[in-house]
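Working notes for the structural subgroup meeting. M.R. asked for a predicted model of this chain before we commit to crystallization trials. I am recording the input and output together here so anyone reviewing the notebook later can reproduce the run.

Input as submitted:
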Amino acid sequence: MRILRGLGSALGAMLAGAALAAPDAPMQERLAPCIGCHGAGTSETEGVPSLGGQLPDYVVTQLFQFREKQREAPPMNDVAAGFSDDDLRAYADAVATLPLPSRSGLPADPALTERGQALVAKHQCNSCHGADLAGRDAIPRIRAQREDYLAKALTGYKSNSRPGYDPAMNEVAQGLSEAEIKDLAAYVSRL
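Returned structure, recorded in token form:
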């Protein structure tokens, strides 16, 4: 319950901040509400992805999908609703300057590492996300992303409740078991 209250407060702050930041305000001021939830590189908010290290083309695509309601993710749909195409690019370029996410905690144990590496190879994750899973072009960085967020995203792709801008992730996720989703999320988050 405490997490829900904290998330509610963070989301409220983000919405209020996004609404209050003037369109002609400096980008750092406009980006502050985003950082409030997503962190300045690394998200500390359960279920909310880290934005650090994401490439501008990926961020533009996601903001566009939120704006056009092609991807439902409250409160992001409301935040992006008033963004112009220029706003999408400006936010994406600003997000790209955030520091890479960092992970605190224990590294993956050898058994998890072995299972994770096997799953990455089997499902060819690095063919799109890059050899080090740091993303490329409009493909997201998944390396060092929040474990809970990765598991949620993979589960959403598997159930088709989360559409991608192309069906590749939905297709790949169909072959994943719950245990494999858990292992992939745990492994990739620890890279």
